[in-house]
Design a protein that fits this description.
Length: 618
């Protein structure tokens, strides 16, 4: 029996036969007779129930059966103080039970799951071990957020995105479930506001620019009347598309909930953000928060699968900036760009008409079309670099307008395991200046193929427990996507395009700069302005893009460190494989080996590659 099936069967037995009032002594006697694998399956069931109970949106996103965690389709994550406490305690207790199991006694598949769950859940709970504010396991499904409400994630952003893109509405039963969840939005938002008030009372108030941007997101969401609200419009469009009987009645109920409950809840958040705006400090780093230094170290562990010090990370960034800048200087000189720093010369390219998409409907349509063409082009080269391709398709879509002003320039949502939803590469079209023609291919390869879609599409097709889909290593995942950018160059995507290669190097430089500015703000007390100035001068990016990036790092501490540190670890393993295998080295074999465990913690990936090499030596 495969692991996923075994875990589900075991959990069904627990749900049916081991409820309150069961024979505890009989259960204990049965446990003593279990094999290590059976014990692990039972403990994994505990973790699965705890995790998806507290993150019901993820249960829907990953297609977790209602039989596994009942009523997940009718709830939203609690962001209240009580919900946060319960989440930390229950998931932590499940983690303790799993850590008590010796992975050496388990089968190969279970050792992988043990490594993923224990390492990543422990990392996700680490910030909560040093502070009692913020939200655990929230941002993009799995991150700790020091500021429960911010401009990039949290309930004011994530709930509308979830309802509009991941909550299914294909029949009357799903329409009812949608309305139940829509009615739960008020409680989720009020709970988050309670959490924020408590954090502020402890001194964990967001920086003034975060308060401003968060307030702008909230105001943009409720600016239109209820009948024009993005949630309502999305719901009625999907009702129509599915041809659901009684659609008008469903729509009427949704409109009343949005008007009477959702918009007022957003209004309460807006009022509080306006209230604290004047007292919010301008310091960008979390060093100023209660126990901020320890919190940042915990975030580095959480986001990089390592205990590297901020000083070490900062120096790695400076070294990589110097190396990449030298390569860019050589390319620029070859194209006749000689005067000024590398950053200044890249700023020249940013505004040259040949590299700028018109900032109008036609220009945005052309940008989307080019991204789709880039995916089609690299698919042709993939068989020489990979043995398999994910079965799920990937689509390119524009970021919803209400979140464009605070969203990243591009990001990716993975497909539904059952094929009901494709992978989506979201492009932010608020200003086409964010995407110079020479830079767009690298973003495309990062977010789609051979980057995140290749990695996550492969992962969800594996026979692993659903919790392994839902949690992933930030450093391994983003490290793979940055490694994929380099692969694209090696695959010949820039063979006749030196400017495209400059765009790739600028993107890699950007990830090196992140090491410098993230540690700069959170450990070395750099200001927001100092970090922006450094990014603009070194990279040559548009100032608006730099502002969005720096403000992102302020609310997602250490997350941006995972890209470069993860890439360096993967490249180091590839170099090791080339040295060990010599002429027998096949890039397809190496890439496939990493892809099979690409969402697991970096230490586990390294152990997997070393075991593969040892077997090859035999």
């Amino acid at each position: 029996m495969q692991l996923r099936a075994a875990a589900t069967a075991s959990l069904l037995f627990l749900l049916i036969g081991c409820g309150p009032g069961g024979d505890v002594e009989a259960q204990a006697d049965a446990a003593t007779l279990e094999s290590p694998d059976s014990t692990f399956d039972r403990v994994l069931d505990d973790m699965t129930r705890a995790f998806f109970y507290h993150r019901p949106e993820l249960a829907t996103k990953f297609g977790v059966s209602e039989l596994v965690v009942p009523r997940t389709a009718h709830r939203l994550m609690s962001r209240s103080i009580l919900g946060e406490t319960g989440r930390r305690e229950e998931i932590g207790a499940a983690l303790d039970r799993m850590q008590a199991i010796d992975p050496a006694t388990l089968s190969t598949e279970r050792r992988r799951t043990h490594a993923v769950v224990t390492t990543l859940i422990e990392g996700a709970l680490a910030p909560a071990s040093v502070v009692d504010y913020g939200t655990t396991i929230d941002g993009f499904g799995f991150w700790y957020l020091p500021y429960t409400i911010n401009q990039l994630s949290g309930p004011t952003v994530d709930i509308p995105n979830f309802l509009n893109t991941q909550q299914p509405v294909s029949n009357s039963e799903e329409a009812e479930a949608y309305l139940v969840r829509l009615a739960a939005v008020k409680g989720a938002l009020d709970g988050a506001l309670e959490n924020v008030r408590e954090a502020v009372s402890q001194g964990a108030i967001p920086p003034d620019f975060v308060v401003e941007k968060s307030l702008a997101v909230v105001e943009a969401f409720v600016a239109a009347p209820a009948e024009q609200n993005a949630i309502y419009i999305s719901f009625i469009e999907r009702l129509d598309a599915a041809g659901i009987e009684g659609a008008a009645a469903y729509a009427e109920r949704a409109l009343k909930i949005v008007s009477d409950d959702v918009i007022p809840a957003y209004g309460r958040i807006a009022a509080y953000l306006a209230e604290i705006r004047g007292s919010a400090p301008h310091d960008a780093g979390i060093w100023r928060l209660p126990n901020g230094e320890a919190l940042y170290k915990a975030m580095i562990r959480h986001m990089t699968d390592s205990d590297r010090s901020p000083e070490e990370v900062h120096q790695t960034g400076l070294d990589e900036v110097e190396r990449i800048t030298s390569e860019m200087d050589t390319l620029l000189r070859g194209e006749g760009y000689i005067e000024g720093s590398v950053g200044e010369r890249m700023q020249q390219l940013n505004v040259e008409e040949r590299f700028v998409y018109p900032n109008d409907a036609d220009g945005k349509a052309a940008l989307l079309a080019d991204a789709r063409a880039q995916i089609d082009a690299i698919k042709v080269a993939m068989p020489d670099w990979f043995s398999t391709m994910p079965k799920h398709p990937v689509e390119v879509r524009p970021v919803p307008e209400f979140s464009q002003n605070s969203a990243p320039t591009g990001y990716y949502y993975q497909p539904a395991p059952d094929g009901s939803r494709p992978g989506v590469y979201w492009l932010n079209l608020r200003d086409t200046a964010l995407h110079p023609r020479f830079a767009l291919p690298t973003l495309t390869f990062h977010e789609s193929i051979p980057g995140h879609h290749m990695q996550l599409g492969t992962m969800i097709e594996q026979d692993v427990p659903p919790i392994v889909w839902a949690i992933w290593s930030n450093a391994a995942g983003e490290g793979w996507a940055l490694y994929a950018e380099r692969l694209a160059a090696e695959m010949g995507m820039y063979a006749d395009d030196p400017y495209g290669d400059l765009g790739r190097l600028q993107a890699e430089l950007h990830r090196a700069v992140r090491l410098v500015v993230d540690t700069g703000m959170h450990a070395k007390k750099w200001s927001r302005e100092q970090a922006i100035e450094y990014m603009v001068s070194v990279e040559g990016v548009d100032e608006g893009a730099a502002i969005s990036e720096i403000e992102r790092y302020a609310v997602w501490p250490a997350q941006a460190l995972g890209y470069k540190l993860g890439m360096l670890r993967i490249l180091g393993l590839r170099n090791l494989a080339q040295q060990r295998l010599g002429d027998d080295f096949d890039i397809r074999d190496f890439n496939d080996q990493v892809l099979q465990v690409a969402g697991t913690p970096l230490p586990y990936i390294e152990a997997t590659i070393r075991e593969w090499l040892e077997q090859a030596d035999m």
